[in-house]
Each structure stands twice: as structure tokens, then as C-alpha cells.
Write a structure and sequence with these properties.
Length: 346
Amino acid sequence: MRALFLVEAGRRVGMGHLMRCRSLMLELERSGADIELWLKGDPEATSGRAWPAGIRIHANPDSLTLTQAEGALEAMLSECRADWVVADGYGFHGHRLHDIATSYRAGLLVVDDVPERTLTADIILNQNLSDEEAYATSQLRAKRYLLGTRYALIAKEYREAKWRPIDHVALQRILVTFGGLDARGLSEKVVNALDTLSGTFEIDVVVGPFHPFEDELRRHRGPHDIRVHKGLSSLAPLMEACDLMISAAGSTTWEACCVGAPLVLIQTQGNQAEVVNTVRAAGAGVCLDATKLLAMGDETLTETIVESVTSASDREMRKAYSERAKRLVDGHGAERVVAAMREHKI
């Protein structure tokens, strides 16, 4: 099998699209597939990560239009046969991508988290949404839908890392991560809130390649031991080592659930609502809405963070969050997606 990925990543859209596609690429590689990546955004998005051996990466500026992307797809498919085109990005929509793929006898799989757009595909994958009814009135059309955390795209290192309650009796080490962008500076706001807690904590803050407030975080001085990490190939070791994780409700959520890291989950974008709803319904963590909290002011945000972390100091509560999270995501979603791709008749 040969798979061609069209993915958006960079300063405008962050790293979520690319990271979940990376998990699918690595699983496809394990099944013997060849991979090409057509990246729309910033070339730095691919640095510091392990990629399939022999992958060809075509970097393109974020200014490229959809029409230009469609032209590039047609040119690549005319040069070499691909069995599948995988598209992940808000800029990919309409019917032409599917028409082009079909004309070259390739399937189109779209990784989606915005059912409101108009699009045609052979397979639609939405790891955040489990109700197919959401697509009943949508302009997204597909022959097959792969929905819910059963299909969460998780890399092998997260499946192999496991959070064990016996290793985390006391609340001492806190992991803070708000993705590759963190345009609202929530990492720093959370660290400031943690400064008001009594005692001394070890705080690991992970910043992505496009984090706008990295310098402020590195200059931060407070009562806790703060370590700022950048360019990590995986968050799995930090998830496994932390006693509590404070995170944006993006794709990282499902990786954390697979590991079993107890979560304080903060919704930062509208399209994260289904992630938060799923975690809340499962009782797999504390769930907050950054938009509402920021509108109320930094004082309210600080009070809410402190209250959430204080409640999570209870060992049994963190143990319960971890167990419920692991039941949500078993880490084999990418394998199921690859199996569906192989079963599908173009």
C-alpha cells in the first residue's frame, strides 16, 4: 500500500493534525506501506519527531490555496500510484479532492473534527465524535464512518507507557501542556495559578515549536521547580511520570487517556467540545472551559485551577480518573483504521 498525506500544521493551526496523522503513518509503515507527506504550513512542524523510514516530505507555504493543493495532489498522483490519500486540515473541503483521488483509483480518507463543512470522502474518521447522527444532516458524505475513541490515533509509545497509581501516592509532579501553539498563553497562566499553592511542586511545561510565550515561561521565577521542555519526540515519558496532567483538550487528550494520566482538561477551542464531553461523561478527569474562565478574569481562572488541582491531590480520585481514562482509549485505534483502509473497496 502507498499512502499520500495532505496535512496542515504550523503557526496558524498548531500541531494536532500532523501529530495524529503521524500515528497513522507509523502504523501504516508497520504494515508495510510507503508514505508521502504533503505539508501545508511551516516546515519546522516536522522537526524533532520520528517519521516512517523513507518518507518523502513536500513542504509548502501556508498561503497556498485549496485549488493549488488540489493541483499538487493531481500532479503527485500522476507521478506515482497511491492507494490512499489522507487529508487532515480545515482548509481541505469540497468534492474535488475526492474526484481527483477517484480518477486515479485511490481512496480518500478525511480526518475530521468539524462536521459542518462540505466534503466527500470514502472514509471519514472522527476520533472525537461517536454519534453518526451528527453527520445525518451534514454536508460531509462518506461510504464509511470511523467514529469515537475506538479509532483514536495513538502512537505505539503511548500504548506502551502506563500510569500506575502505586507510583503516584502524593501529588508532587505536574505536567502542563497546551499544544504546539497556545496562542492565549494558558501555560503561563496555569503556572502563575500553581504559584499560589502551598508547598513545592515539580512542574514540567511542554511548549511546541510555535509557542509565543516560551521566553516568559523560561524567565518565570516562583516557589516551584519548573522545567520547560521543547522539541520532545513524545510526551509519553512525562505522562507516565506525572502525578497530574493539565492539558488543552486536543488530540493529546486521547494519548493521555491511553497512558492513564489523571487529567485536568481545559477546552481552548470550540471544536474540542466533544472531547471534553466524552471525558466528562466517563468521569475520566476534571473538565474546564478556558473561554468562559478567561472572560471572568485571571483571578477566577486562578481560583478554578487551584480548586481543581487541590481536589486532585486525593490519591483515590486520581486513581479513579486514570482507570476510567484507560477504558476510554486502548491505543489500538490506528490499527483499526489501517484494517478499514485495507478492507475498503475503491
